[in-house]
């Protein structure tokens, strides 16, 4: 996976180093309700969709230069209530 987040867009060709970063606060909001899980006759048969979401986020985040002076990430899960899984200060 190749991901470049920079402003102005200055991603080097051929996935080389990025010349300039802008500090970014990225807030990810995910659906944590039962509708994310597969169901069979009203009972949870598994949560393959939730596993897909977690794996997708993991793959995206490992490509980002996370840190206080580059990209800070927060994760919020919503369902019947909203939970901050981790904030920008983590």
What does this structure look like?
The chain is an alpha+beta fold. The chain has one domain: von Willebrand factor, type A domain (Rossmann fold). The strands form two sheets. Strands 1-4-5 form a three-stranded mixed β-sheet, with no helix packed on it. The radius of gyration is 17 Å and the shape is flat. The chain starts with 23 loop residues before the first strand and ends with a strand. The mean pLDDT is 75.
Strand-helix topology:
Elements: E1 24-31, E2 38-40, E3 43-46, H1 48-61, E4 71-78, E5 82-86
Parallel strand pairs: 1-4
Antiparallel strand pairs: 2-3, 4-5
Summarize the structure.
This protein is an alpha+beta fold and about 90 residues long. It has one domain (about 15-85): von Willebrand factor, type A domain (Rossmann fold, 3-Layer(aba) Sandwich), CATH 3.40.50.
Label this structure with key terms:
flat, 90 residues, Rossmann fold, 1 helix, single chain, two-stranded antiparallel ribbon, 5 strands, alpha+beta
> What is the helix/strand order?
EEEHEE
Distance between the termini: 24 Å
**The CATH class:** Alpha Beta
Strand content of the residues, in percent?
A: 25-35%
- State the helix count: 1
Oligomeric assembly: single chain
Number of strands: 5
Supply the CATH superfamily name.
von Willebrand factor, type A domain
What is the CATH-assigned architecture?
Answer: 3-Layer(aba) Sandwich
Instruction: Let me know the largest β-sheet.
Output: 3 strands, mixed
- Roughly what is the average pLDDT, rounded to an integer? 75
The side-by-side strand order for the widest beta sheet comes to: 1-4-5
Radius of gyration: 17 Å
**Low-confidence segments:** none
Structural class: alpha+beta
Question: How many discrete domains?
Answer: 1
Overall helicity:
10-25%
Task: Write down the CATH topology.
Answer: Rossmann fold
Outline, from the CA principal axes?
flat
